[in-house]
């Protein structure tokens, strides 16, 4: 299929993609990274946009992430020609201040202070340190590029943090739990602590569990945890980390609709 693609890069929620068309009509699609890969592969992606008969076309970016715009003439005559730019989100509405009232003063707590509220993340990645560079870190990067917010220890922990407290906060404030199952995972204490929390939240319906098998067989998983061996998983022996990340991004994205 002949089409033009505009790589908008990573954009914040609320920005606007502005597409200028040279012809009278074209199919315009705004897609995140995972759906653009589907589009390239000829599958059915989820997108914002449609048949545009007027220029410029303005499409709001629904969430932060890496975004693409494609322009094609499928079902139309002519060639797809276009240009694209991005307008940043609007500034907050300016509100009049009352100089005589202390209620107008906003106090921001220092970062990483004890007891501060934790933002909700899309996914929590539980893994053994031996699998960090091969699976966990690139998986987090691919998910972030797809607009998915990620809890990963190296992204969250700072000097002086309580490891148990930070893990508990991450578990309690994530919608999906990704577990990278491997031989080192079942040999370590902290991954088992995280797994106990993830399974508890999964059983109570508070969280979805997404297992990934890395250099481990089903029989080995069965010997350690029959319930996990029975759950649908993805293996790095059959899929690349990027392919697994795309599928996870689709699952997380579908839960938002």
Automatic annotation (TrEMBL):
InterPro entries: DUF1883 (IPR015073), DUF1883-like_sf (IPR036488), TIR_dom (IPR000157), Toll_tir_struct_dom_sf (IPR035897). Residues 119-252 form the TIR domain. It holds the Pfam family TIR_2. GO terms for biological process: signal transduction. It comes from the Bacteria. This is Molecular chaperone Tir. It comes from Streptomyces griseoruber.
């Amino acid at each position: 299929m002949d089409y033009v693609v505009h790589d908008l890069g990573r954009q914040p929620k609320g920005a606007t993609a502005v597409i200028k068309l040279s012809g009278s009509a074209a199919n315009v699609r705004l897609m995140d990274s995972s759906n653009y890969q589907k589009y390239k592969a000829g599958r059915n992606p989820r997108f914002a946009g449609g048949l545009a008969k007027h220029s410029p076309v303005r499409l709001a970016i629904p969430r932060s992430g890496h975004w693409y715009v494609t322009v094609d003439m499928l079902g139309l005559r002519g060639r797809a020609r276009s240009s694209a730019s991005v307008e940043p989100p609007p500034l907050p509405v300016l509100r009049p201040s009352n100089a005589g009232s202390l209620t107008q003063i906003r106090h921001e707590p220092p970062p990483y202070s004890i007891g501060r509220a934790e933002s909700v993340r899309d996914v929590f990645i539980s893994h053994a340190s031996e699998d960090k560079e091969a699976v966990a870190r690139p998986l987090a990067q691919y998910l972030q590029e797809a607009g998915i917010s990620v809890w990963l220890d190296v992204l969250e922990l700072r000097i002086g943090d309580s490891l148990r407290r930070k893990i508990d906060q991450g578990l309690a404030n994530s919608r999906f739990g990704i577990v990278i199952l491997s031989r080192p995972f079942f040999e370590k204490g902290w991954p088992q602590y995280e797994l106990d929390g993830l399974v508890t939240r999964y059983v109570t319906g508070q969280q979805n569990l997404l297992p990934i098998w890395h250099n481990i067989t089903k029989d080995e998983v069965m010997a350690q945890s029959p319930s996990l061996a029975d759950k649908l998983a993805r293996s790095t022996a059959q899929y690349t980390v990027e392919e697994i990340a795309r599928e996870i991004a689709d699952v997380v994205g579908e839960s938002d609709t």
